[in-house]
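Morning F.,

Quick status update on the modeling queue. The single chain you submitted on Monday has been processed. Sequence for confirmation:
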Amino acid sequence: MWSICKKELAQYFSSLTGYIAIVVFLLVNGLVLFVFRDNILEYGYATLESFFSLAPWVLIFLVPAITMRSFSEEFRTGTFEILRTRPLSSWHITAGKFFGSLLIAVIALFPTIVYFFSVNALSSTSGIDSGAAAGSYLGLFFLAAVFTSIGICMSSFTNNAVVAFIISVIVCVFLYYGFNAISQLAGLSGGLDYFIELLGIDLHYQNISRGVIDTRDIIYFLSLIFFFLLLTQQNLKKR
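Structure tokens below.
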């Protein structure tokens, strides 16, 4: 499994594309936080709220860009047959691809810790709420993990990386915001809207971002990850 993980890392960083994707992620978040209108310097209050609100939407495009070639490239070039000759089960292959891609996403997130220390240093009062910031970073990690499992799953259905990217983005957007949008439709008030919103990722991400770790939110994220990895594993067995 770890050999597959290392292969994913080496393949992603073997070209400039991987580095450019991470740089763009950091650049977009940095510009919104420090440069664009209503940035942190104009706001006058030590908070990373704008970053934690924007980051999920950037991850929706970054993570599928990371995972889109995971299996589709193997199918297109015919190397998947070679991969199956190794003493690895379909679960080992799936897990290796998943952890390799997730590690890349974590590498992209890690430098953003600089934002926390920068804003905290600029604050003239008590600084940033560390508990809420830690919870938000944990939420971003779970988001990256869920989006990675979705991207890996969609990549296992096609040998076209672009198609895998597009489908992954659509599924990620729907799971992140779709249920929230549906819950706001007229006629769904009175309790039903809350249960529909519970199905979406956004509500659980917001809960964790408050700094309160609820086991129900953790179980939700782990269940989604397991579901898409199981779907990937079953698809590989069919092949």
